[in-house]
Write a structure and sequence with these properties.
Order of helices and strands: HHHEEEHEE
Distance between the termini: 20 Å
Oligomer: single chain
Number of helices: 4
Strand content: 25-35%
Mean pLDDT: 92
CATH class: Alpha Beta
Strand order of the largest sheet: 1-2-3-4-5
Shape: globular
Helix content: 25-40%
Low-confidence stretches: none
CATH topology: Lambda Exonuclease, Chain A
Amino acid sequence: MQNDSEKYPLKDLTEKIIGCAYTVHNELGAGFVEKVYENALAIELRDHAINVAQQKPIRVSYRGKAVGDFVADLVADDNVLVEVKAVKALTKEFDAKLLHYLKATGLEVGLLINFGESVQVRRKVYTR
């Protein structure tokens, strides 16, 4: 049977990030575009002593050759990739995209945070 640290790697950090997301949503409410929530979440994370990189460029490689780029919304403490959404509901496509991003970055943990009517969070773990 898995313990919490095996089932939820970086649990303490991800719980802090999720708590910050709720704080942002409680203060701003629903209805803003994603960028507003991304910027507010970055401020809140920094206020909680979490190092955060915004709009971090990520190179995608195939067999050692660059084949494309994407930009991660946030990377927290160089360990957790955070994708911010402001939509009615999260879809499977968002989940798949987050897993692809984790694979491309080599990061193990990602959070998909939706600032819709209420905060929705999906935690994804990618293991090689």
